[in-house]
Design goal:
The protein is an alpha/beta fold. It is built from 14 helices and 12 strands. α5 packs across α6 and α12 packs parallel to α13. The structure holds D-mannose and manganese (II) ion. Catalyzes the dehydration of D-mannonate.
Length: 406
């Protein structure tokens, strides 16, 4: 595996110096400031490459931009409205420019309106640190009482609705506002400027789009961009829905193994693949990460390795972002499958036999407490995650691992 780290750009609190000290091998980044749908020019791509090529003192960082996360797919493409055709052409142009500058692994997602959804961004843990959490009851209370979506109550079972009534009744205004801000935090654009009315309007645009229709739009997008990616030698990799179940009445089409199979078969090319994110997928008990890796291994182009603890059975359910090795997903079994896949690729002589991975989110611990920053992206929690994952990788690669059952 290539050990990578997400860098949001020059304003990121982590520097190349920090990453080098963490043992990071490559950088994951994106030009977040370019509006979705527009072309990423070669010049802007090179500017970012240049920014991450140097340490604070100007000496070479030895690190390169290896994965793009994300080259976002516009809402127009997802809905096939407005400028969607132009956006697809622009997407191809961006792929071309990225490839010209050596960038071949391109992550994106196909979640309508939302990216990730949590009810708590700093949920206190018994050890004193905090993490992000999805509380199903809070979420239902938001949907039914704050957003007041028409069919909200029908989206949850009776028990959840009853608990949400009780929860909302005891919620003060401060928590109501915070909850609304947290839930809408994964929406595109600045959170501050999105009112509940704006959110209602964004959701209403999907009234006539069910999962089948969204899937058709997704396949159209792939049919257009995958031939370009093939020509360029680019690997596209779709990040799964986070969390992997329907929310706010929106269609969700990348949540399970069946979903992946449908999409990978529809446009059956190695250029169209997956970002296997164990933290997102692990919020469902029927997503067995090791089994998913075995099933789709050859089409997995990027890995997000983190863990969640499912707090109750069923789908949907509450969960929180656990320590990397302590949640509901068996990370050793998952990583062992990744190592097997990499061995197969090596035998086949695949150029991409090392799959890039990053620790994805982390808990806020130690000096990160009290520091604000991108939710989910504290330096020390991710560093701890990376160190723990590296421990597993090292142990599995050691000859002694094969002798353990004697
Ligand atoms: C959350 C991330 C996602 C991811 C996008 C990929 O922290 O894993 O925001 O970057 O969904 O397109
Ligand atoms: Mn992820």
């Amino acid at each position: 595996m290539r050990q990578t780290w997400r860098w949001f750009g020059p304003h990121d609190q982590a520097s190349m110096d920090d990453m080098r000290q963490a043992g990071v091998e490559g950088v994951v980044s994106a030009l977040h400031y370019i509006p979705t749908g527009e072309v990423w020019s070669s010049e802007e791509i090179r500017r970012r490459q240049d920014a991450l090529s140097r340490m604070k003192d100007g000496s070479p960082s030895g690190l390169a931009w290896e994965v793009v996360e994300s080259l976002p797919v516009s809402e127009d493409i997802k809905k096939q409205t407005g400028d969607w055709r132009a956006h697809i052409e622009n997407y191809k142009q961006s792929l071309q420019h990225l490839s010209e500058n050596g960038l071949e692994t391109i992550c994106y997602n196909f979640m309508p309106v939302l990216d990730w959804t949590r009810t708590d961004l700093a949920w206190k843990l018994p050890h004193g640190g905090d993490c992000m959490r999805f509380d199903l009851i809070d979420f239902a209370a938001f949907d039914i009482h704050i957003l007041q979506r028409k069919s909200a109550a029908a989206s949850f079972d009776e028990q959840t609705v009853a608990k949400a009534e009780e929860r909302f009744a005891s919620m003060d205004e401060h928590r109501q506002r915070e909850l609304a801000r947290n839930v809408t935090g994964g929406l595109p654009g600045s959170t501050e400027s999105l009112t509940i009315e704006d959110v209602r309007q964004l959701l209403a645009q999907y009234d006539a789009i069910d999962s089948e229709r969204l899937r058709t739009h997704y396949v159209t997008f792939l049919e257009e961009v995958v031939p370009v990616a093939e020509k360029l030698g680019t690997r596209l990799c779709c990040h799964p829905d986070d969390p992997p179940f329907p929310l706010l009445g929106l269609p969700r089409i990348m949540s399970t193994g069946e979903d992946f199979e449908t999409i990978l078969d529809a446009v059956d090319s190695p250029a169209s693949g997956l970002t296997l994110c164990s933290g997102s997928l692990g919020a469902r008990p029927d997503n067995d990460l090791a089994a998913l890796m075995r099933r789709f291994g050859s089409r997995v182009h990027f890995l997000h390795l983190r863990n969640v603890t499912r707090e109750e059975p069923g789908i949907p359910a509450s969960f929180h972002e656990a320590e990397h090795l302590c949640g509901s997903t068996d990370m050793v079994a998952f990583i062992a499958e990744i190592v097997r896949e990499e061995k197969r690729r090596k035998v086949e002589g695949r150029r991409d036999h090392q799959i890039p991975m990053r620790p994805d989110h982390g808990q806020r611990i130690v000096d990160d407490l009290g520091r604000s920053g991108q939710p989910g992206y504290p330096i020390i929690g991710r560093l701890r995650g990376l160190a723990e994952l590296r421990g597993i990788m090292t142990a599995l690669a050691h000859p002694i691992a094969g002798q353990m059952d004697h």
